[in-house]
């Protein structure tokens, strides 16, 4: 059975993103005739000179009326080898929060550049956000190659320009592919127009990419989500801790420590509805039973005694701010981290990053909507955390408005 | 569960994600309920819920909004499944609301009770003080749904505001809400129609017989195949023809169309779904055809 790959893409109509997505959907037979007919009808009624495939993903009335994408749209397609979830977001700076949202769960970021224009501000912004959110793989599609006569020099120059920019970022794996979304060159199969290109087609690259080792399988991290106590006749003494493995490989017999209490025990068994398992690893949802009867509740974290996360109240974060009201020093916010909710106070706003130039502005005192910056905060009770670069699950937090419940921002622990 | 090389299949990943969502909601909300119609998506959702809380029973009741125009096969199935799980079943009845004079039925030809489900659903949520309601909707069904969050907030009037949704990052769900507000939760957001069928096969789930090919008296209307029932009668000029059909979605009899099919087993249905080029709602649901934004408009008012 196929694996799942989550792809995030960002951009505007101009760079051919919608055409590329439309082609991937169409060529994997994931685009349906009634959807296509509806798009053709709407394009005709609006008087467009062409079939605007963006209408496929622009699902809201306001988006269709204004001809813009304002939110994350999810599209699904599959090949016999893999299933894909595509989070499609608008690319302009005022949609940074949407791009951050799409990238937060992605295995791969898909960037498009127009071969005639090369690397532009928007390309750099997307690459920076992919790097910030630690999307493990990046594909740069140099699109509209048909408009530059499939010129190898053009492609190599863009590839080199991007390589130089990306050297400033922490991006592990970059592939650069010359494509024409309109004509289909190198999208699904290798194109005869680019004999000088010896890499994979885009779809083949997406299908064959090795993603299994992107997860952290070293540091055991199991945030307790729900305590299982059936209290029924036949299961009178059953007590287990349900959760989704956030890191490492957990096995029966393993010595474990429960944090923040520090109590130790051993894994008695790992249960699922489908029977016990010998190993649990991310992102499995399981029930862990311990040999000793400890006081464990939601929000606690199970780790190995010789490999523990940091337990502390002072956090340094990179945050993506998502609301109009600015983030200021001394702001009081709610924090959700793994399965634990606490309160916190912002102790410092250190700097704002200009996401187009990567310049740090240390003179700022606040962060506004769509800003990215570094802050420090202190929580009322300890969190059990890892650096985000080490573990996306135990290194990420939501900042929440305690009064309205709104999500204010997303934080990545440094 | 065969597991090698620390890899999961895409169905196992989708299941693990959905289980996580169920447990988050159960832990953070006071009074959740699960919308169970007896349709295939809610059957799959119910199995995932069973897995999330096993070996304990479901920590919440099932809720069904009965339009009074449901297929008998589906209602029988609903009652049997609830009994097997020992789950409490809450039924909100559109017919009862009409009989009590709380709702006025549109009896013009072509009208359905689809619109009437929304006030009954909202009343059921208020009366039972539900603060979280699980639904089986998928993002691949329809383009307004493709934009909806897993945790979808509803104000005190049950309305969805698509332009003012909370960003949803990683697997960190923010369930904060004020009294009177509730959320709709869609644990199967990332599943496709084909995933649903593959899961039905993998779990050997029983589903109502009308999902498989059977012979029915049918007639064509607006490009859809409708069954001849007491509620759906052919008009003059609409020829009744016996056909081998099955249902891809199961909703209100009056607006759910059948598709011609010979697929009589799960494997045959999977083969058929994999080859089809028309979306399930486009093929079979008159309620979504009203306008380009039919689903968005109904969801804004509090629809499923």
Automatic annotation (TrEMBL), chain A:
By its UniProt entry, which CDD domains does this protein fall under? CysN_ATPS, CysN_NodQ_II, CysN_NoDQ_III
Q: Which residues form the Tr-type G domain?
A: 2-215
Alphabetical list of Gene3D superfamilies matching this protein: P-loop containing nucleotide triphosphate hydrolases (3.40.50.300), Translation factors (2.40.30.10)
SUPFAM superfamilies documented for this protein: EF-Tu/eEF-1alpha/eIF2-gamma C-terminal domain, P-loop containing nucleoside triphosphate hydrolases, Translation proteins
Q: What is its EC number?
A: 2.7.7.4
Record keywords, A-Z: ATP-binding, GTP-binding, Nucleotide-binding, Nucleotidyltransferase, Transferase
The UniProt entry's GO biological process terms, in alphabetical order, are:
sulfur compound metabolic process
Q: List the Pfam families hit by this protein, alphabetically.
A: GTP-eEF1A_C, GTP_EFTU
Domain of life of the source: Bacteria
Say if the entry is tagged with keyword Cell membrane.
no
Q: Name one GO molecular function term.
A: GTP binding
Q: List the protein's name.
A: sulfate adenylyltransferase
Q: Which residues form a coiled coil?
A: none
From TrEMBL, chain B:
Which controlled-vocabulary keywords does the entry list? ATP-binding, Nucleotide-binding, Nucleotidyltransferase, Transferase
**Coiled coil start-end:** none
Q: Which domain of life is it from?
A: Bacteria
EC class, as a word, reads transferase
Residues annotated as domain Phosphoadenosine phosphosulphate reductase? 32-257
Q: Give GO terms for biological process.
A: sulfate assimilation
Any Pfam family: PAPS_reduct
EC number per UniProt: 2.7.7.4
Q: Where is this region: Disordered?
A: 284-304
**Any idea which GO molecular function terms this record carries?**
ATP binding; sulfate adenylyltransferase (ATP) activity
The record's comment on protein family reads: Belongs to the PAPS reductase family. CysD subfamily.
NCBIfam families, per database record: CysD, PRK05253.1, PRK12563.1
Q: PANTHER family from the xrefs? A: SULFATE ADENYLYLTRANSFERASE SUBUNIT 2 (PTHR43196:SF1)
The name on file for this protein is Sulfate adenylyltransferase subunit 2
Q: Which organism is it from?
A: Frankia torreyi
């Amino acid at each position: 059975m196929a694996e799942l790959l989550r792809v995030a893409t960002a951009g505007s109509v101009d760079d051919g993103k919608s055409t590329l997505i439309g082609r991937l959907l169409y060529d994997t037979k994931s685009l349906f005739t009634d959807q296509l007919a509806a798009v053709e009808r709407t394009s005709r009624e609006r008087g467009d000179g062409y079939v605007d495939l963006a209408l496929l993903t622009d699902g809201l009335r306001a988006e269709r009326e204004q001809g813009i994408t304002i939110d994350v749209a999810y599209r699904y397609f599959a090949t016999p080898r893999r299933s894909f979830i595509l989070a499609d977001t608008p690319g302009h700076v005022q949609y940074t929060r949407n791009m951050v949202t799409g990238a937060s769960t992605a295995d791969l970021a898909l960037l498009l550049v127009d071969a005639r224009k090369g690397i532009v501000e928007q390309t750099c912004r997307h690459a920076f956000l992919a790097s910030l959110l630690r999307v493990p793989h990046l594909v740069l599609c140099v699109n509209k190659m048909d408009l530059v006569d499939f010129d190898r020099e053009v492609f190599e120059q863009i590839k080199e320009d991007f390589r130089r920019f990306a050297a400033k970022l922490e991006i592990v794996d970059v592939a650069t592919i010359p494509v024409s979304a309109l004509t289909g060159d190198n999208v699904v199969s290798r194109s005869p127009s680019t004999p000088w290109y010896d890499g994979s087609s885009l779809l083949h690259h997406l299908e064959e990419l090795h993603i299994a080792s992107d997860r952290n399988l070293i540091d055991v991290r199991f945030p307790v989500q729900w305590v299982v106590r059936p209290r029924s006749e036949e299961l009178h003494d059953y007590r287990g801790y349900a959760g989704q493995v956030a890191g490492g490989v957990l096995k029966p017999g393993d010595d474990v420590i429960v944090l923040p209490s520090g109590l130790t025990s051993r894994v008695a068994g790992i249960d699922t509805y489908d029977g016990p398992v010998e190993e649990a690893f991310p992102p499995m949802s399981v029930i862990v039973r311990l040999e000793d009867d400890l006081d464990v509740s939601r929000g606690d974290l199970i780790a190995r005694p010789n490999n523990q996360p940091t337990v502390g109240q002072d956090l340094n974060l990179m945050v993506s701010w998502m609301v109009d009201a600015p983030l200021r020093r001394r702001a009081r916010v709610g924090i959700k981290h793994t399965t634990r909710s606490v309160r916190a106070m912002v102790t410092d706003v250190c700097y704002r990053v200009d996401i187009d130039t990567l310049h740090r502005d240390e003179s700022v005192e606040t962060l506004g909507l769509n800003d990215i910056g570094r802050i420090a905060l202190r929580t009322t009770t300890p969190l059990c955390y890892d650096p985000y670069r080490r573990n996306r699950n135990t290194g990420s937090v939501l900042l929440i408005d305690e009064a309205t419940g709104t999500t204010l921002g997303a934080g990545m622990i440094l | 569960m065969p597991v090698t090389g620390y890899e999961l299949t895409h169905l196992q990943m989708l299941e693990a994600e959905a289980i996580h969502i169920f447990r988050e909601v159960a832990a953070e909300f006071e009074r959740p309920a699960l919308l169970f119609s007896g349709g295939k998506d809610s059957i799959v959702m119910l199995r995932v819920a069973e897995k999330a809380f096993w070996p304990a029973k479901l920590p919440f009741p099932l809720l069904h909004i009965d339009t009074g125009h449901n297929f008998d096969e589906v209602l029988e199935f609903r009652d049997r499944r609830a009994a097997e799980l020992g789950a409490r079943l809450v039924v909100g009845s559109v017919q009862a609301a009409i009989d009590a004079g709380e709702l006025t039925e549109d009896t013009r030809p072509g009208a359905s009770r689809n619109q009437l489900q929304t006030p009954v659903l909202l009343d059921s949520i208020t009366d039972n003080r539900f603060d979280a309601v699980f639904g089986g909707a998928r993002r691949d069904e329809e383009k307004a749904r493709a934009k909806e969050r897993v945790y979808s907030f509803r104000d005190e009037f049950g309305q969805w505001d698509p332009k003012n949704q909370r960003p949803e990052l990683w697997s960190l769900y923010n369930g904060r809400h004020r009294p009177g507000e509730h959320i709709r939760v869609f644990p199967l957001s990332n599943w496709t129609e084909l995933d649903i069928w593959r899961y039905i096969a993998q779990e050997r789930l029983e589903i109502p017989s009308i999902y498989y090919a059977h012979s029915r008296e049918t007639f064509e209307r607006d490009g859809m195949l409708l069954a001849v029932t007491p509620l759906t009668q052919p008009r003059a000029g609409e020829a009744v023809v016996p056909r081998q059909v099955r249902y891809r979605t199961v909703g209100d009899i009056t607006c759910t169309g059948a598709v011609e099919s010979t697929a009589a087993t799960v494997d045959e249905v999977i083969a058929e779904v994999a080859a089809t080029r028309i979306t399930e709602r486009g093929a079979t649901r008159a309620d979504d055809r009203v306008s380009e934004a039919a689903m968005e408009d109904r969801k804004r008012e509090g629809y499923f």
